[in-house]
Amino acid sequence: MTMEAYRYEDGSISYPGHPVGPDGSEPVETIDLSEYTAEVITWTTSTATPPGVREPNTLAIVEFDVDGEPVRAIGQATSDDLETGDEVEPIYVNELREPGAGIREPESQAWDGYRFEPV
Amino acid sequence: MERVAIIGASMSQFGQRDEWIRELLAEAGSACLEDAAVDPSDIDHLYVSNMASGEFEGQTGVVNALVHDLGAVPAYTERVDQTSSSGGAGIYAAWRSVASGASDMTLLVGGEKMTHRTTAEATDVIASLTHPCEYKHGVTLPSFAGLTARHYLERFDAPRESLGKVAAKNHKNGVDNPNAQFQKEVDLETILESPIVADPLRLYDFCPITDGSAALMLCPESVAAEYTDEYVVISGIDGATDTHVVHERPDPTIMGGVVESGDGAFEMADREPDDIDVAELHDMFTILEFLQMEGLGFAEQGEAWKLVEEGYTDRDGELPINTSGGLKSKGHPLGASGVAQGVEIYEQLMGEAGPRQVDADVGLCCNVGGFGNCVITTIMEAAA
């Protein structure tokens, strides 16, 4: 599995990737963010979670540095013992929430992904 | 282009209601027809702001149901869904219908029926607007608020209490709104000690789940004169968007849709932030009131909390914000909220706000969908 981000013609990177990047530029390559560590920008622990989601659910917005180009991602954290500025690494999880327990059609999207674990 | 007037308004009781979406919409629609003294047969266009009647209740096609229930057949109808900003988008759609000359009398009704669902179910319906990369992690709108609030407080060295003061202010305002879901003051200590929902935000930083409806009647200014001598005009209105994926925004404390729609509305109205006498902002979460104050130019970035601390946004302050009680106290029936913001500004400009009345000639409302994903800003003025 990979945590696939897109790099665009203008050099910028986004996670997730989009068909069109900033200013209409085309994607030119994919980058696996799971090979990098990231810094916590902000985090929260949610106690009012929807059906099929763990409770409590600690979430973080993190920023990767890919050869000098910043790219942010959001995801669950493996611990609620987080601080802004902490270094984290992506850890693969087969199922982040229970498919089908919520309103979204289970077949409409993937349910695996990466949690952020403090390094 | 002829100016667009608002000649009538209504709002149903917000809260936990026994009625379903059809009845809620008809209640506000009928009341607005009566308030404006307009016969249903005179309606050219009928817009319904509603986010999710199919998902919440299994009732789709609410526009056709309502046009029939009001006796307004064969008026053109259209449902406006822009998530939490459906109401503001409805004002924009209704304004366009009149400004373009397509309609000489447009009724806008917003409504949502939510409270029969559990909090978890309602939260999931709303969270379904998120990108798959967010949804699979269980990201909800309240969790976006927690993430943003922590960043704001840390970055701008703002005290946690300042967010609590937004909640206390809006609850205090709601005491004088007979249609508000909560009509009671809540002290700061209670707010700051309430259960954590999305750390650092607590229960009283969030709006409730609500049933309710609201309506506005719009027509060309020349037609308004046939019905009344006193009315309000929409002098500026604009809508804008920001990224679907929230973490991709360059600055988590800037909502680009607020900035863009605000700039557009101010330019159209030939007004500046200092000209606004009263504002209704989308306080679905307390932190959003700060972000909108800053995005609309009422405060510098990172400084809105200071104005709240100073009482600048109190009902008797320089710029009263959320005199209705806001979404925080009045409630947030998704599709109705933006329309109800317009109802409050209309009543303030008409001098009909009762104990909530402030001295105002120019008012603004800002309706936010998603977590700043879609935004409508509207400026209204008392007709000169």
Can you walk me through this structure?
The complex is a heterodimer of chains A (119) and B (384). Chain A has 119 residues and is mainly β. Chain A has no helices and eight strands. The mean pLDDT of chain A is 96. Chain B has 384 residues and is α/β, with parallel strands linked by helices. Chain B is built from 15 helices and eleven strands. In chain B, α1 (21-36) packs across α3 (62-69), α4 crosses α15 and α8 (160-174) packs across α12 (286-295).
Annotation keywords:
heterodimer; A: 119 residues; mainly beta; 0% helix; globular; B: 384 residues; alpha/beta; 9-stranded mixed sheet; 15 helices
Quick structural gist:
The complex is a heterodimer of chains A (119) and B (384). Chain A has 119 residues and is mostly beta strands.
Tally of extended strands of chain B? 11
What is the string of helix and strand elements of chain B?
EHEHHEHEHHHHHEEEHEHEHHHHEE
Helical content of chain A stands at under 10%
The helix tally of chain B amounts to 15
Helix and strand pattern of chain A: EEEEEEEE
Mean pLDDT value of chain A: 96
CATH topology of the domain at 4-117 and 209-227 in chain B: Peroxisomal Thiolase, Chain A, domain 1
Distance from first to last alpha carbon of chain A: 20 Å
Strand neighbour order, sheet with most strands of chain A = 6-5-4-7-8
The gyration radius over C-alpha positions of chain A equals: 15 Å
Largest inter-chain interface? A-B, 38 and 40 residues
